[in-house]
Amino acid sequence: MFDNESSVRRFTVEEARNRAVVAAVYSDLVLGGRDRFLGRLAADVKWTVVVGGSAGGTFYGGGRVWEKAIVPLVREWDGFEFVPFELVPVGDRVYVVGEGSGTHAVTGKRGRASSCTSGI
Questions:
Q1: Which of 37, 43, 11, 35 is nearest to 23 (CA)?
Q2: Which side of the chain, N or C, has fewer Cβ within a 10 Å radius?
C-alpha cells in the first residue's frame, strides 16, 4: 500500500520543464487559439487522447493533433472547453487529466466527460 511519505515523487529537471511546456500549451489553446497552440508543439509531437468518440486516438505532429483531436470537439460541442486538473510528468511524457464540457451541437444537451491525454 501507499503511505503519504513514500508515495511523494519529485520531478526531474526534464519532467518539470515538460510539465511547464504542457501547461503553456493548454493555456495557449484557451487564450491564443490555433496559432499559439501549434507554435508550442514540437514538430514530432505524439499526442494521445484517451476518450471515446471522434477525438480519441494517437496523433503525430501538430497539424494532425489540431485536425483530429481539437477540431472535432469544437464542431460537435458548442462552447467546448477542457479544464486540466492534473499534469503528471513521467520521463519524457506528460499525462493530463481533466474534464471537457459543452453543449452538443445536434441534441442541445449539456455534457461533461473526464479524459486523459498524453504528449511527448
A1: 37
A2: N
Q: List pLDDT tens digits, range 61-104.
A: 999 999 998 898 889 999 988 889 899 999 888 999 989 899 99
Alpha-carbon distance 7 to 3, whole Å?
Answer: 6
Q: Which amino acid belongs to residue 110?
A: R
Distances (CA, A) of 72 to 69, 78, 91: 6, 11, 29
The residue extents of the domains of the chain are 13-119
User: Which pLDDT belongs to residue 73?
Assistant: 86
pTM over 0.85, yes/no: no
- The CATH architecture assigned to 13-119 reads Roll (3.10)
C-alpha distances in Å from residue 46, one per residue of 26, 78, 84, 86, 111: 15, 27, 18, 19, 27
61 Cβ partners below 8 Å, 6+ apart? 43, 44, 45
